[in-house]
Structures are given as C-alpha cells and as structure tokens.
Amino acid sequence: MMTGAKRKRSTVWRKIQAVRFEDIKAWCMRRLPILKWVPVYNWKESLVPDTVSGMMLAIQQVTQGLAFAALSSVHPVFGLYGSFFPVIVYAIFGMGRHVATGTFALTSLISANAVERLVPSVTTNFTANNNSGILGLSEFEMQRIGVAAAVSFLGGIIQVAMFMLQLGRATFLLTEPVISAMTTGAATHVVTSQVKYLLGMKMPYISGPLGFFHIYAYVFENIRSVQLEALLLSLLSIVVLVLVKELNEKFQRDIKVVLPIDLLLIIATSIACYYADMEYVYGLEVVGHIPKGLPSPKMPPMNVLPEVVTEAFGVALVGYVASLALAQGSAKKFKYTVDDNQEFLAHGLSNVIPSFFFCIPSAAAMGRTALLYSTGAKTQMACLISCVLILVVIYAIGPLLYWLPMCVLASIIVVGLKGMLMQFCDLKKYWNVDKIDWSIWVSTYVFTICFAANVGLLYGIVCTIVIVIFRFPRAKTLNLKNVKEVEYKYKAEDNCESLKQVKIISVNNPLVFLNARKFHADLIKIIQKDSMSSQCEQNTLLCPFSNGSCHGESVQSCHSERCVLILDCSGLNFFDYTGVSVLLQIYMDCKNRHINVLLAHCKASLIKAMQYGGYLESENPVFFESISSAIDAIQIHRNGHVEDQFSPGT
Q1: Beta pairing partners, 123
Q2: Whole-prediction pTM value?
Q3: CATH number of 474-491+498-527+562-638
Q4: Which of 128, 245, 323, 547 is deepest in the core (most CB within 10 A)?
Q5: Are 513 and 576 in contact (CB under 8 A)?
C-alpha cells in the first residue's frame, strides 16, 4: 500500500514538474480573456466610443439596479451593488465584448420566490429606517438580502460546476424557439409582478403554479383599491419613456448620443415627489433611505442553501441561457468567437464573488447589450468605465434617490422589457418556416407563464429532444446517385455499359440507433425503385434482394459480372454500435445475394469499427478513399476476369 501511494505521489509530482511556463501562460490566456484584449486595446480609436457607451450604460445600470432589486424583494441599494461587482468580474473572465452583465429581471424574479418564502414581507415599504442592522438598514432587510445572496452564491456554484463538467457543449439543446419563448414568458411574469406598483395597490406576494392568473384575479377583485395618483404617474412615465426611446432609435444615426430619458425621468419625478410631498399627501410609495458607500464582504448564510436549491438552479440555467444568447449574437454580429463553456465560468464567478458583497443574482440583459450596440462600444472597457460612474452614485448620489416613486421604477422595468415582449413577432417567422417550431414556442410560453421560467425552459428542452427523436428516424437517410454525378469518364462505350450494374448510394445522415432501421428500409426501397425502371432483371439489384437467386439466362450474367453497391459515406458524420451492426448486416445480406458492397469516403473510426465487427472479406478490398477509386477497382477486377475467361487453355 505504501509503495503504491509513493508511486502515485511521484507520478503527480512528475506531472507538476512537467508543467512549463508556456502551459501556465496559455491557460491564463484561455481562462482570463482580459489578458488578450487589454494589451492590444486601441486607446486612440476605442476609448472615446467606449467612454460614451460607459456613461450611457451607467445610467441604465443604476435605474435597472434599483428597479430589479425591488423586483427581487430586497432593498433597492443592493441593486446598485449588483450593478457594480458582477460587471468587474465578467470583464475579467467573460468573452462577450458587448455583454453587459448586472442585475437581470428574470433572475431577480426567481430569487424573489426564495426571499418571499423564507422571509415573508410584513410591509413592502422601503422607507423604514431602522439602524439596528448593517448599512443602516433594518434586520428584516438584511435577512432578505441574505437569502438573495445565498441564491446568487449557490447558482454561481452550479454554473462553475457545469463549467468543470464541460456542459457548455450541451448548449446545442437550447434552440432559438425555446430561448425566445422562455424569455418572452418570463418577461410577461415580470410585467405582472409590477402591476401592484403601477396601480399603487397593496397586494400580498403571490407565486407558485398558475400564480400569474391569481395575481390578475386579485387585481380585479380589489380594483377599487387602485391608487389613482400612482396609476396616472405610471401611465405618464410609460408614455414618456416609450415616446423618447422610439425617437432615440429613429434619430440614432444623426444624434449619436441618445437622450438618457431614464435618468431624466428619475430626477424629475424625485424632485416633484419631494416638493409636492407625495409620500405623505398622496401616500405614494417611494424608494426611501439608501446607504452611502460599499459594504464590507460577508459570507452568505450557508444554513439557507438547502432551502434555495430550486431557485439556484433556476438562476443558473435561465441566467446562463439568456446571457449566452446575447454573447453569441454579439459574436456573430461583430465576427468573433465565444467559448460556451468559458461563459459558464464567467457568469458563475459573477454570481459567486459578488454574493459576498450583498448582491442579487446577475446575468446579461438585452436592453444593456442593445445600448452598447447603438452607442458604438468596442470592448468591455465600456463596462469598466460604467463601474467608475456607478461608484460615484453609490458614494455621492445614492442618498438623493430617497424620493423616487416606486411606480416610476416599475414603469422603467416594464418599458425596458419591450425587446423581450416584441419576440411575440417571431411567431409569424416560425409558422412560415416550421409549424413544429411554432408549436414548441407556444407550448413553452404557456408552460412558462403557468409555472416558472426554469420549468418552461426544461419543458422546451425536453420537448425539443422528444421531437428530434421522432423526426430523426423519419428523415431521408439515403440518396441514389448516377455514375455521371461523380464526374467519372470512360473512353469505351462497353465500359459504360458494364457499369450499369453499379449503384452508388450516398448516406446523408449519421447512422445511430434512432435511424438504423429506416436506413436499412430506405436502402431496399431505393434499390427496388431503381430496378422498376430497368428492362431486364440481370441489370438490376431487385433480383438478388427479392429472392436471393437468379433464374434462367441471367444466372451466368449474375455470376460473371456481380452487381456492385457503392455506399458513399461522406455524409456519415458519426455512428454507434447499432449503426455499425446494420452496415455489417447489409454487407452480409448482399454478399449472400451475389452483390458486392464497397464503401467510399469512410472515416478511419468507421473502418476500424467495421473491421472489429468482423465478417468482411479479406481477399477483396471493401473500403476506398473515393467513389472514383472504387469504380476503378471494379473496372480492373472485371477486365481481369474477362482476360482470364478468354485466355488460351481455359
């Protein structure tokens, strides 16, 4: 035992010693993308657009941070922290140049479930100023952010674990219809959660299956409790936001810098609320006390982790899916690459590390990414510049937001989700392209609004897999080729005549257990269909397949010039044991019926697998590099056979 342990330790030590400086450097460059783009950053050309983008992004980060913190059922100041720490972490580890991570509506909504379940709300008013807790906030508010931070911590751990398991490769299961339907359904949930603020109603927290419908049922049952002042201010805010944002988009090319209507609306309504004393005169709910400065790091409450596993998985999956879609879209638009697995690490650490600073779960948001597009951002430097400005807000401007009405924050959230809600327009595209994708979109959306975003996402993935399983075996697997299609020319006409018994069939799909049976059936069908157009049995493959023997005058022809079936395997990208077994079965069946089977364009792994399976003839070659080389071999064999047949003495 000791000898084995020593040998194992020495092996590990040798591996450690074998690690070179170049290996460490390559690993750091791969896992820390900031080391790639910072040394080559073009300060002359990129700094100005990145600075402008960073300033505009900071405004949006502040407004969304305050709003999404309220959506997460925690004090708005924690949204400011969530707009600062995750951005720095992602800039170091992330690969998306135009991905602005931070607070996110969907992950905030998911974490709110855990917060409301474990720390039920006594009042939704954030103005309570009890200095018994950290940052001058009440113990109740600190307990709530503790739960949200625990969700962020565990969700980040799950994402890092997925990175270590290399699950980024499984993102092909996340089809566009599923992501579109899930995010649209989740955006519908977010809008519904803001109804109480838009209407100024006092409403208990409602969640769970069909909670979406229970919220509206409660609203209609208590319609008389709507606060008219809050409703009018909400409508005015929404109209102003939509109108100015539309004008910004229309004249974006001319004015270059968009009007920061979110910031202007916050300033205007805060001033109006302060001078009109709306909190006490009209009873409007306001943000309240916002502490100054950054908090000291503190471990999230570990005893809460078992209670928030469901929400943590939801944050990990939904946040990653939404963020990855934006990163891939950015990479496609600006022609660079994104490592799906590295994004797991970047977003995981963007949740784990900030959770020690009282941050709610984070992810990338469509609105922020669109802002970086429109303002001409070049790199993640724009996000880092926004962090500097957010720091100014945290230390200097934050306390001035005391009088900001909650209904205005709700309006900002609703208008900010316009991009996601507009994905309803995708339905027409899916209907025209593929009715099944349309059905997946609709059903995934229904599941999302009836249950939750993570449930809808899982349903969409399972639904996609099931449909692929049913559609894959029905897909066309084979295609009959003509000899002329391979551009093979012969000088003598008799050579062309002799090649009439050569059939070339291309394999179009992978050969696995899902389609192996149909592959065999398609092969028989193609051969039979081709033989129907032939005038005599001896020039077809139907005779051997139909009864296994030849009759009459065709016996001598069949045995002198055996039919040949060439399988073009260039489209056979991968296979499994069942697929190889079917190929071997086809080979043996054809051999028993006097048909030679040749395989062209085979990968080395397929050749090895079939040779391992056995039953292959050793005297004649079966595998060829190309169809042309296979036809050459047939011609040489037949010419040699004719010479032997007519040589003297035979």
Answers
A1: none
A2: 0.74
A3: 3.30.750.24
A4: 323
A5: yes
